[in-house]
Design brief:
By secondary structure, the protein is of the alpha/beta class. The protein has a single domain (15-252), classed as Rossmann fold (3-Layer(aba) Sandwich), CATH 3.40.50.11710. The chain is 52% helix and 14% strand. The chain contains twelve helices and six strands. The chain has a six-stranded mixed β-sheet with strand order 1-6-5-2-3-4. Strand 2 (33-39), helix 3 (47-60) and strand 3 form a beta-alpha-beta unit. Helix 11 packs parallel to helix 12.
């Protein structure tokens, strides 16, 4: 008798990518430029999932700015490898960005719409970076709800990282230094968000919802001036399975 075991096994379901945002926003896509933000080291920005993101952007938007968030990851590197100095983490983060651009060139070059690429240092060296960040710090001192949004976002992230860490690493993640590194990351991210209008983009495309701190930053600092512009257009992957943790060079040193 023939063995039908293999034929009876369920076939892997094909991953699909869709936008999860209001229909009125989707209606604006064909006449819009999007900001495709890339968290270097995240599985969703590699291989098949990144290819699907590129295809989705190419199909729906008029043009695209790819923002490679490489030097932002220096805070994560210090968090997961406390032996690194800030200078070492910065150099490694740029190295990771270089590698991401080389590794994924064949994929993002499949865009047939006009596109450009900027890297995170563009925001760090922006002439308005310092004054923008000071404005956020001032609001944090004066607005309890905004401060709570930062605190909740940081604790949610640390809880998620601790679940994946070994016992000694988990103890380190409970330190004041770990919280400060997360705060530095989030403050920098929110500062850049306030500068993104310069890129002349209508929506931010990213494979998840914005965290609470970023959402409130948009509401407080951007909406009064630009309304819905730069609202999130999250990508949802269907049949994606369990996502792997962020993978950066520094975590393996």
């Amino acid at each position: 008798m023939a063995n039908n075991t293999l034929t009876s096994l369920p076939r892997p379901r094909r991953i699909r990518a869709v936008f999860k945002c209001p229909e009125q926003h989707k209606a604006q896509f064909p006449d819009s430029q999007c900001l495709l933000t890339i968290s270097v080291g995240q599985e969703v920005h590699e291989d098949e999932k990144f290819r699907l993101s590129v295809e989705l952007v190419n199909k729906h938007f008029k043009s695209c700015v790819i923002c490679v968030d490489d030097s932002l990851q220096r805070h994560t590197m210090e968090l997961t490898n406390p032996k690194l100095t800030p200078e070492e983490a910065y150099k490694l983060s740029l190295f990771e960005g270089d590698n991401w651009l080389k590794r994924n060139k064949e994929l993002y070059e499949q865009l047939s719409i006009p596109y450009s690429i900027i890297r995170w240092d563009h925001w760090l060296s922006h002439e308005k970076y310092t004054i923008t960040q000071e404005g956020i710090k001032k609001r944090l001192r004066e607005d309890v709800e905004y401060e709570k949004a930062f605190d909740e976002t940081i604790n949610t992230f640390l809880t998620r990282v601790k679940r994946r860490a070994t016992a000694p690493e988990s103890e380190g993640l409970a330190s004041v230094q770990a919280y400060q590194l997360c705060f530095n990351y989030l403050l920098e991210e929110c500062t850049a968000l306030c500068l993104w209008p310069e890129a002349d983009c209508d929506f931010e495309v990213y494979p998840s919802k914005r965290n609470l701190a970023m959402s409130m930053t948009h509401q407080i600092f951007l909406e009064p001036a630009i309304g819905y512009r730069l609202s999130p257009a999250p990508i949802k992957f269907i049949n994606k399975g369990q996502l792997l943790p962020q993978k950066l060079l520094a975590t393996s040193l």
